[in-house]
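LAB NOTEBOOK - FOLDING QUEUE
OPERATOR: T.R.
BATCH SIZE: 2
PURPOSE: Compare the predicted structure-token outputs for two unrelated chains run back to back under identical settings.
PRIORITY: normal
REVIEWER: second-year student, initials M.K.

ITEM 1
FIELD SEQUENCE / FIELD STRUCTURE:
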Amino acid sequence: MSLAVAQTADDHFASGHLQILDRSSGTEWVADRLGVIQAAPGWASITATLRDVRGNLRAATVTADYADEAAATGKPALVLSFEGQRELTGPPLSRVKIAAC
């Protein structure tokens, strides 16, 4: 997963990029449209519409959880939810940046 998004108080939507590779199927998803960043102490999330190379679209939410026990290193644990159903969790990553400015 590659993720770097930001949003100022004046922006209606976040800007940046989100790219996800599903290693089991080899499908690569890229954000077609980013939503609003939600942030609170210890976590931040972003919604997005993802598109694969065939043009298929899926709604997704990515949450970076800095309060998770696995994030003791200062790197966020990640939770990825597709269309509000399929939830995947991942190990802490060092190259994740979600910023509400």
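ITEM 2
FIELD SEQUENCE / FIELD STRUCTURE:
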Amino acid sequence: MKTIDWKIKKVRNNNMRNGMVDFVMAFMLLFVTFVLMLFLVLGFRNSVKIESYLDAVATQGVRILAIENDENEVITLANTLKMTAIETVDIDDLTCSVGSGDRVVHLVIQVDYEVPVLGSKTFKSSAAAYNEDQNQELNCTLLLGVS
């Protein structure tokens, strides 16, 4: 009888080892999934922040260009509203060209951002306004960098 009890205990211990291995593997899988989801959520949160920043700068910047036609004010605005992920904006980042079309001011802002796990993505925002001061078309592009 003692030999049978010993064999049952040995089988039970082997089953417990297999169960523990399965438990550890399941826990590791859940942990890795949680960390991956955390990175995805943080990446998308920063993406939404960058998009709203670009929209705000484009809307205000095109108004400044239409009313004052001052490129330095647009750079000051972009640096004032700047979030931590965006590098400091220089006057060299803004390029403007004058066209012979209607009295429209068009501002395009672009930034390349690396979304964790998903890779690189280009965000663009544009806005247009009526140019009341000058009888020409003004097209400006602002390229931003990510720190």
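REVIEWER COMMENT (ITEM 2): Helices lie at 2-67, 71-80.
FOLLOW-UP: none requested
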